[in-house]
Amino acid sequence: MKSKKSSSVGTLYLKTYNLTLVFGWSYILVKFLQNDFSFTVDESLWQNLKWPLIIFQHAALLEIIHAMMGLVKSNAMLTLFQVSSRIIIVDGVLLAIPYSEASTTGIWMAVLAWSITEIIRYLYYFMNLNNYVPHVLSWLRYTLFIVLYPIGVSGELLCAYAATQYARSHPDALSYTLPNSWNFAFSYLYLLISVMITYIPVFPQLYLHMFAQRRKILGRDSLKKAQ
User: Fold this and answer.
1) Which of 109, 144, 168, 214 has the fewest Cβ atoms within 10 angstroms?
2) CA–CA dist 222, 227 (Å, integer)
3) What is the DSSP letter of 144?
């Protein structure tokens, strides 16, 4: 059984973590909204967004540890996929290939969906730790995902697809071919294809999980608990 002291320290840590991420993703959204909304993201804006995206996407890796340690009730495997898929897009696509080869529409969609989703999500977690969540925040958390999840995933897949085109036209880029002294081969193209394929079984599971949570928080299940 956890002591009150350790519990309070954990709660303070989670509050600090979530509030930091709220401010971080708010900063990203503000910088993004400086775009001219022509469905392209110019390179100067990407340079402004790059490091905040790297920092706050990688900060989400801590959520996997939180779930594994029992600090939060999230499913560790679902959290692992959700977090790692985005980090693969940031590290393995946006930072790995030249900007001119990236899908600007995909970046536009992904960054917009990520930032709005994460601001609401982390603010919801923060308020929940304070034992007060306004109904409007709960509604936003468990309603906007219906649109934002498909937009974000579509943006991620467009980015990954653009990277596959780059990999096809540059077969030696980021790949390690045989023969070599290590007797080891790595294909950047096949990695991208494998990542895209994993979206087929996992995204529906994540999406349906959110609908189940929505029913629990906003729908019939919540009404049953109130009665």
Assistant:
1) 168
2) 9
3) T
